[in-house]
Design brief:
This protein is an alpha/beta fold and 176 residues long. It has 7 helices and 6 strands, in the order E-H-E-H-H-E-H-E-H-E-H-E-H.
Length: 176
Amino acid sequence: MKALFLDRDGTLIVDKVYLADPAGVEIIPGVADGLRRARDLGYKLFLFTNQSGIGRGYHTLDDTLRVNARMEDLLGLGSPLFAGVCIAPEAPGQPVVYRKPSPRFILEKIEQHRLDPAQTWMVGDSAADLGAGLGAQVNVAAVRSGKLDPAALPEIAAHRIPVFEDFAAFAASLPA
Ligand SMILES: [Mg+2]
């Protein structure tokens, strides 16, 4: 079984930083078609998002769940879209359970869903995303649609991580 682990902010939706209002959800162009293509190719989809705004007390877990639900609505690909969702609520400095770059969520899902790491990807726009994928020993891809320019991240060169304009370009690159 193959899978994609997907960062949310800057990868699937526009990164608004501590987004707590579902009305602020904006899907990055091409994401819905890209997810449909990946799903049609047999990839299980997992959402893996750091939400330190919860740990910092800026918003609640319920806010994040409402934002995620709005994202699913706007994507229009049915619900539940994801075979698993990890919302890591820790603020930096708090004990880490799932916060990326921890690979824990990916490793747990590999086990539970018998995923093939060689056919599994972590896709995101930040060093934490890339680190989680590298730590879990799955394939890693970076996208330029977020706040960070992944090309500037040392992991990119050190691990020859492919950089895509956005998730749509990544999805188009998946072999049929
Ligand atoms: Mg991100």
